[in-house]
């Protein structure tokens, strides 16, 4: 395990600027998640660290050593790809043993066998070791893919949306398992995803990528409650943060220069009243909770409500702000 | 892909369509099989039966054609033949019944061996070089890649006969005329373009992430190629090998022009099998029948790969 640092990294593919001036440190033993939409440069970041791409500018260092001129094989990283994770012509066992059998390592077969079985147990695939890798379900494949990284003890694990192709239930399970495994072995891990739930639940720190720039990095709490700008605020929170013009709702104290107010559920106070400033437009029943769709003038807001809240469609309510987020005309956060 | 079909499936052809298609395929198969069946039958006819008109469909099969194919014979007086001991083999017996004795082996077997060496040798080389070149074109940013690929293909755009004379002169200068090496090089040159194009398609379909994963795991590019790319390209390699082999095995024009003696292949040799007083058709037919065997065996061995191969990866996985 080791610290990995990116310094002023830029990378372009022809006309496309995939990354601009990215600075990032993943500390020893830390679980960092990069969160960003498709095309924001997540995969490119991982490929640069692994040595599959060369940066146009900047430095990559692993355990204090500048690795930009090193081949992937000598960088001591493990990579879980988004797709095509397993070798289709090999069995599960052979897939797991593949990294250990590399000429660079030359481990004795007994040691390989012990390691493969240990990891297979860890990712709960030990009952299918002799299966062909193409005969597995999606969840099993992804577990083997993660296992193939775990058989090694590299400086850093790089994972590229390893769970994105799975259904919601499996994703939830594997998310927990991955976090458990990372705790067990105390590994340094850089994980990229476009799923905010994965980021919030697994990360020690989250980095927000947008258009090839690292916009903000911090603990999940910091990113959630202290977003640097509108973009970051919009990445997190379910339902989506409400962006409303300043002055629409009472409450709070907007600093000068405020253009937009960001109001999540916890920033909205609902009081039922005969003739309030807002009207319930629609209620979505999700079972454990309700999404209230609220109309204020022509603006529509969504917020969470307790399912026992006795409120119905067409009811008028009083809506007030409580310590919302303020943004200036450029989308920067004001405090 | 599911086997379940419903009566009103939109993509599944109707029963009538399928039946008509089936009939057409069977008819076509019959038409293409007739010459083969004809050759096979002729190889078991006696020389008079083979040229009788109308052609005989029912005849007494004999091995005379095969005997004549593998031997040279000389005519002898009946007295001399009487004076010999009992016949050594079936062929001996057949030959003596025609008032002849076996003088020695014919050139068929050496020519057949030449064909094997040249066809398999050039196929191996073409597929080997083609795989490496296709991998290079598929994975690296080769300068002028499109132009190079077009140039490689363009070597197949003219008929062989158009370049026959220059190659003939060149080979004579280089001492490659009538040598197995010369023929292997020539067929390799012709086939390598086909191999590069076919294999590039197959290798393009193998995601490069597989090799990248291997390289991150401590393999060099060459090792990753051997351990990850090659096993997944076997279908394409097998299909390409069959196409190359069929070309090299059947090639006639260059073979006639450039080989005459020690390196002669079977195709130019077979038509020169002459019996007493004209063509020995049963022997020619026997030579052709045996000539078909290696391709048949090779194709059957690789049938599965070939079937998937000629759909060019459409049903991979
Ligand atoms: N090999 C490549 N060639 C050209 N453009 C690329 C290549 N790889 C990535 N890009 C471009 O760089 C940008 C970032 O891509 P990527 O890192 O894959 O984003 P993400 O993984 O966040 O979806 C995208 O605009 C993408 O189209
Ligand atoms: Mg990606």
Automatic annotation (TrEMBL), chain B:
Keywords: Cell membrane, Membrane, Transmembrane, Transmembrane helix, Transport. Belongs to the binding-protein-dependent transport system permease family. It comes from Mycoplana rhizolycopersici. It is a multi-pass membrane protein. The lineage of its organism: Bacteria, Pseudomonadati, Pseudomonadota, Alphaproteobacteria, Hyphomicrobiales. This is Carbohydrate ABC transporter permease. InterPro entries: BP-dep_ABC_trans_perm, MetI-like, MetI-like_sf. Residues 112-302 form the ABC transmembrane type-1 domain. Pfam families: BPD_transp_1 (PF00528). Its main location: membrane. Signal peptide: none annotated. SUPFAM superfamilies: MetI-like (SSF161098). It is found in: Cell membrane. The chain crosses the membrane at residues 20-41, 116-136, 148-168, 180-199, 228-249, 281-302.
């Amino acid at each position: 395990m080791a610290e990995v640092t990116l310094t002023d990294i830029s990378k372009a593919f022809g006309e496309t600027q995939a990354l601009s001036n990215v600075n990032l440190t993943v500390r020893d033993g830390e679980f960092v998640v990069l969160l960003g939409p498709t095309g924001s440069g997540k995969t490119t970041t991982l490929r640069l660290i692994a040595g599959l791409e060369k940066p146009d500018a900047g430095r990559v260092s692993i355990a204090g050593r500048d690795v930009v001129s090193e081949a992937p094989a000598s960088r001591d990283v493990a990579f879980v790809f988004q797709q095509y994770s397993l070798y289709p012509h090999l069995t599960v066992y052979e897939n797991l043993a593949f990294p250990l059998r590399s000429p660079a390592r030359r481990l004795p077969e007994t040691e390989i066998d012990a390691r493969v079985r240990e990891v297979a147990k860890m990712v709960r695939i030990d009952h299918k070791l002799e299966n062909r890798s193409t005969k597995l379900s999606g969840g099993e494949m992804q577990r083997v893919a993660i296992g193939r990284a775990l058989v090694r003890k590299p400086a850093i694990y790089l994972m590229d949306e390893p769970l994105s192709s799975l259904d919601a239930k499996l994703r939830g399970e594997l998310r927990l398992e991955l976090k458990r495994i990372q705790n067990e072995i105390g590994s340094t891990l850089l994980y990229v995803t476009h799923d905010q739930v994965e980021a919030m639940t697994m990360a020690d720190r989250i980095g927000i990528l947008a258009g090839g720039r690292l916009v903000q990095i911090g603990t999940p709490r910091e990113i959630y409650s202290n977003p640097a700008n509108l973009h970051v605020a919009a990445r997190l929170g379910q339902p989506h943060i409400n962006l409303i013009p300043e002055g629409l709702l009472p409450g709070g104290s907007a600093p000068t220069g405020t253009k937009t107010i960001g109001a999540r559920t916890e920033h909205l106070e609902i009081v039922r009243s005969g003739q309030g400033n807002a009207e319930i437009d629609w209620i979505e029943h999700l079972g454990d909770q309700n999404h209230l769709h609220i109309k204020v003038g022509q603006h529509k807001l969504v917020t969470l409500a307790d399912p026992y809240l006795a409120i119905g469609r067409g009811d008028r309510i009083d809506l007030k702000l409580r310590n919302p987020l303020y943004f200036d005309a450029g989308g920067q956060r004001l405090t | 892909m599911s086997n379940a079909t419903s009566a009103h499936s939109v993509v599944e052809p109707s029963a009538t369509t399928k039946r008509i298609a089936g009939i057409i395929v069977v008819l076509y198969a019959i038409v293409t099989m007739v010459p083969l069946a004809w050759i096979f039958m002729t190889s078991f006819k006696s020389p008079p039966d083979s040229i009788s008109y109308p052609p005989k469909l029912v005849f007494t099969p004999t091995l005379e054609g095969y005997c004549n194919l593998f031997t040279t014979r000389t005519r002898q007086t009946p007295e001399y033949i009487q004076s010999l001991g009992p016949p050594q083999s079936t062929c001996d017996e057949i030959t003596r019944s025609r008032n002849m004795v076996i003088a020695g082996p014919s050139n068929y077997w050496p020519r057949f061996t030449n064909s094997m060496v040249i066809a398999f040798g050039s196929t191996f080389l073409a597929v080997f070089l083609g795989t490496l070149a296709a991998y290079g074109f598929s994975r690296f940013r080769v300068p002028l890649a499109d132009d190079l690929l077009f140039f490689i293909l363009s070597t197949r755009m003219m008929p062989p006969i158009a370049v026959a004379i220059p190659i003939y002169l060149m080979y004579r200068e280089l001492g490659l005329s009538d040598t197995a090496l010369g023929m292997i090089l020539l067929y390799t040159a012709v086939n390598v373009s086909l191999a590069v194009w076919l294999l590039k398609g197959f290798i393009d379909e193998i995601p490069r992430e597989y090799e990248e994963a291997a390289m991150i795991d401590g393999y060099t590019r060459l090792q990753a190629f051997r351990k990850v790319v090659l096993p997944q390209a076997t279908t394409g390699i097998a299909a390409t090998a069959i196409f190359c082999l069929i070309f090299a095995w059947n090639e006639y024009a260059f073979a006639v022009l450039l080989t005459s003696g020690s390196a002669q292949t079977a195709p130019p040799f077979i038509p020169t099998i002459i019996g007493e007083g004209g063509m020995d058709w049963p022997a020619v037919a026997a030579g052709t029948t045996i000539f078909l065997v290696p391709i048949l065996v090779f194709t059957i061995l690789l049938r599965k790969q070939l079937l998937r191969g000629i759909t060019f990866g459409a049903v991979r996985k």
